[in-house]
Specification:
The protein is built from 28 helices and 25 strands. The protein is of the alpha/beta class. The chain has three domains: 282 residues, Aconitase, domain 3 (2-Layer Sandwich); 189 residues, Aconitase, domain 3 (2-Layer Sandwich), CATH 3.30.499.10; 121 residues, Aconitase, domain 4. The protein has a five-stranded parallel β-sheet, with helices on both faces. Strands 14-13-12-15 form a four-stranded parallel β-sheet. Helix 27 links the parallel strand 24 and strand 25.
Length: 710
Amino acid sequence: LNETKYGVTIKASEHPYKGIFTSLPKSGGGEFGKYYSLPGLNDPRVEKLPFSIRILLESAIRNCDGFQVKKDDVEKIIDWENSAPKLVEIPFKPARVLLQDFTGVPAVVDLAAMDAMKNLNSDPNKINPLVPVDLVIDHSVQVDVARSANAVQANMELEFKRNGERFGFLKWGSTAFRNMLVPPGSGIVHQVNLEYLGRVVFNNEGLLYPDSVVGTDSHTTMIDGLGVAGWGVGGIEAEATMLGQPMSMVLPGCFGFKMTGKLRDGVTATDLVLTATQMLRKHGVVGKFVEFHGEGVGQLSLADRATIANMSPEYGATMGFFPVDHVTLEYLKLTGRSDETVAMIEQYLRANKMFVDYSEPQQERVYSSYLQLDLADVEPCISGPKRPHDRVPLKEMKADWHGCLNNKVGFKTAELKHGSVVIAAITSCTNTSNPSVMLGAALVAKKATELGLEKYLDQQGFSIVGYGCTTCIGNSGDLHESVSAAISENDIVAAAVLSGNRNFEGRVHPLTRANYLASPPLVVAYALAGTVDIDFDKEPIGTGKDGKSVYFRDIWPSNDEIAQVVCNQVYCLTCSKVPMKLSLRGTPCGTLLKFLITTDHISPAGSIHKDSPAAKFLLERGVDRKDFNSYGSRRGNDEMMARGTFANIRIVNKLLNGERYKEAGHETIVIAGAEYGSGSSRDWAAKGPMLQGVKAVISKSFERSTEVIL
């Protein structure tokens, strides 16, 4: 192959695997293109490989140039069953890169700052991505206006006002560098990636290969539900990938998660993913691939699979992968991919042994470890109050809530009580691409209205506030002043219920100490109840128009009801490195932290508290409080981010005098418990501590993405 749009590929005639380079014919004559055939290797080990590992193998073969990727690397992957336990390293070249605006701005800043080319008397324009790059602006929107039918427009106008300089810079970057910019208000990055950007199979000027992606957001894994290998990385890794450098990664183990049966009536994909998250966290899959298989997978819609894949970071896996099947192909057609494109995808994947048909006998694949779940055993549940894998069956919620309070419940005089729901939000990438749970939430509200439990929710202020991350990333906006005052003055443990994917301390809102993850229908149910201190099986949610009690079972829709609405309404428009050695002798510990310190603890992304060092920094420079914006939106400014490090109001440094080391100019270390750096993939979780003089972090264990960034 000659020079292509995205760089130079080794000529086919000189390629070490030219013997398996073959054509993919069209059924009506002609060809779709050429590809490297895995069956052409005639190696029985390939047949046993998990589908996700086969994608790594194809990439290594295609990019094998004897320099960045060698034949020895290909052999390591073919012999995955024996080489993965040895933790060998392999290079991987993803097909594309996905950015969101919080992490994308620093990446574009870095590219724009590469003026070393000019110092070398070369052309700075040569600094350009060698792979497709998409940047979706979705993290900037904040909820300033709520309880209004005009909330979307008002919040978007404020978003543009706050972020004019950032948006202008990104628009310049989209023209100065070779990438695509998806503007604000288009939707959450992972939904856009799933429904629009995901190729499944690339056709790059006649060269066919599987789609794969790394993104500067940990929930990039949502695309795994489409059969595209993808996961979150730090900005540094993403920039290197953009510039054509292979990622160095440990050849991962792959856990086989077998699903059987089907979900019971009234059980949602969110209930399933919270159950799977608890199982996988307990099993331990950090840094590994999880591949879902079994006849139960064939019963799940693509949106349900994407929901499960989305929460891979919450159960610790690098990927939660679903191989492509007929359900995937139907979804591609429903979301506007052409018939010819879908035909090419199916034919390529079948030819290269990357397609699964659950109606046919399956050849046994080898996995590092095995788990199994009967979908019929999944029950309605929520997760919280502080971690995504703290699953609570709905029937046990009231008892669990009282256990969480750790003391006899005695309330001071106030309209709010412990457990009052002050934030109820359908939010985040986890569920918004899933029509079953979104329309299920609408049916719960509709049934409540018909029974006279409440008037229409939009008349009470439950309106769409924006198309972005909002509440899930801490951009829920201020509570009503009377609510904030009641919580603070009476020391109330207020609750938030959201259909998000993270509920770590201080992330959702500074005043909600209990934060529960739930399916969108359950969010509506808890909003109607007004409290998490309720047993839905025994206690009524309220009183209907006939004076009778209305229970949870009265408003919960059946699967058939949801399916009927989904089928009638949805998609009517078919449109090798040398380790750095550090001397730590005599270095004091400046920060001693507890178990499970998340990246939200280390470098918050949400609102800037009025009493924080970052707020003081802004006020001293004449920035009004209304223009503070958020930590995430100011990641292009190192002085701000250094002041925002360890600024989460819920973080506790057990060394009260640790600050004196920094004041004296000493370098320090951080000591923490297990699972340091859980949560979002965040460069500033490493950059911020470094700017504060931290020399090293010592922890019992690290989350994969944070360890890589450090």
